[in-house]
Write a structure and sequence with these properties.
Helix content is 54%, strand content 10%. It is of the alpha/beta class. It has a five-stranded parallel sheet, sandwiched between helices. Helix 3 links the parallel strand 3 (60-64) and strand 4. Helix 7 (165-175) crosses helix 9 and helix 7 (165-175) packs across helix 10. The longest helix has 25 residues, at 136-160. The chain is elongated, with a radius of gyration of 23 Å.
């Protein structure tokens, strides 16, 4: 930090306590004013976490995407960025498309927590110094990956919409872990009939297996209308 400059205010939203403490200690040693948001409160929600962060008036927020029972941290990126906060997303995985979606929503950088702590400190330091938090080419590539994922999901939802009511019911049953024989018994039809309907589902979704069909539906958060198969059985 430049001598005489006001210290940069930074807030950490991270539910991995040891990692958060390590980051906070190192940033404080670098001269940052660090605040950690308490995520252990059983009453905490995404809305309350957002309010707490904004009350801390940070210039930079380190945001974990996986906030456990509180929810998906990606939903905080847009409101934080919209308030003028520089958001650095911390993640221990997820797809490059998800990273790009964070950037598309206004995050300054995405930093894997599986890497070195120095990477986090470097990203924050670049923001403090008024520099780009990550290379422009890498940022553009990740945003493009996000746009590609969004288009794939849009196409997948359109294919799911082509399922008949019975195919919708069967896919829902497969998502609940039911086997073909269970579905046949429940629907009072032959297993051959169910297998034919499953083949139709795979063809409409343009996948090769039941596992792939379930994965595709889960990817876009699709759920069949009506009762859960297991509860209704």
């Amino acid at each position: 930090m430049t001598p005489g400059a006001r210290p940069t205010r930074l807030t950490i939203v991270e539910d991995h306590v040891l990692f958060a403490e390590s980051v906070a200690t190192n940033l404080a040693a670098e001269g940052y004013l660090v605040k950690r948001i308490n995520l252990a409160d059983s009453r905490a929600t995404l809305a309350s976490v957002l309010a707490s962060v904004l009350r801390s008036v940070p210039r930079v927020v380190l945001l974990d995407l996986d906030l456990g029972r509180i929810g998906d941290g990606i939903r905080l990126v847009s409101p934080l960025a919209g308030s003028g906060v520089s958001v650095v997303v911390l993640t221990d995985g997820l797809s490059r498309g998800t990273w790009g979606e964070c950037l598309r929503r206004g995050a300054k950088a995405v930093v894997p927590t599986t890497g070195c702590l120095e990477d986090v400190l470097a990203a924050v330091g670049r923001i403090r110094d008024g520099l780009p938090a990550m290379p422009a080419a890498e940022r553009a590539e990740l945003v493009q990956a996000a746009l590609h994922d969004r288009e794939e999901c849009r196409a997948l939802r359109a294919r799911l919409a082509r399922l008949t009511p019975r195919e919708t019911e069967i896919l829902g049953a497969l998502m609940d872990g039911a086997q073909v024989r269970d579905i046949a018994r429940r629907c009072v039809v032959s297993e051959a009939t169910v297998r034919t309907q499953v083949k139709s589902i795979l063809a409409k979704l343009e996948v090769r297996s039941q596992v792939a069909a379930v994965g595709a539906a889960s990817r876009v958060g699709w759920h069949p209308p009506g009762a859960d198969w297991n509860r209704a059985s």
